[in-house]
């Protein structure tokens, strides 16, 4: 009520004839003050909620929360279907694969959305829970269960194309100087929690990252198609050891070239045995 009185007194002291404010603007401002005061009174339980029991209020809040979660879920699904590239990393023309995946993996669409959105955007489970109208623990459980199931189906999409196909899609900057390149390799290190086993601590320790990590050798074509992912190795393993043990070299054919950074400079002898250039 203090807010209403202050605004009213201030506005009534202004002369309409001399003020640059128009009369209709003055009326709108006063009505805004009145509506604000009314909303404050309506929100005050002393005026409006004295006759409602606490159990009824709790029931009303639960209904409101349920309705809010349903709206959030519908809005999130609508956003994903409108722009799957942004939220899931999947082009619109390939969105039908999601429904096929749901059928093959026997997973609800919501579970697939949560898993792929987590992988794509790395949102916290608290944000995912808000987006999909569920609890944080539930979103975490869904991801932990679904990511293992989806990996079994999605890893089938990782394959090594033939050389003609790779060279047909070779980017223009590669064709002049790196026309024989069929693979670009690098090692990905993912930090993990410190293992309780001292042996595992030593095997996963990475001097480069100054922590315990898991390493993967990843290869892609010059135009960005992932064609090889190795199994996980402890952070202590060198890039050369991973390349030898992962079976990557077996996919290379004589006469092709591999592109890598300086961390792989010691693999020249390994590649030359198959007449492959670095």
UniProtKB/TrEMBL annotation:
What PANTHER family does this protein map onto? Answer: SPINDLE AND KINETOCHORE ASSOCIATED COMPLEX SUBUNIT 3, THAP DOMAIN PROTEIN
Which keywords label this protein?
Metal-binding
| GO MF annotations, alphabetized | metal ion binding
Q: Which Pfam families match?
A: DDE_Tnp_4
What InterPro entries does the annotation carry? Answer: HARBI1_dom
- Superkingdom of origin organism: Eukaryota
Q: Which cofactor does it need?
A: a divalent metal cation
Every DDE Tnp4 domain range: 185-268
Would you tell me the protein name for this molecule?
Uncharacterized protein LOC115887054
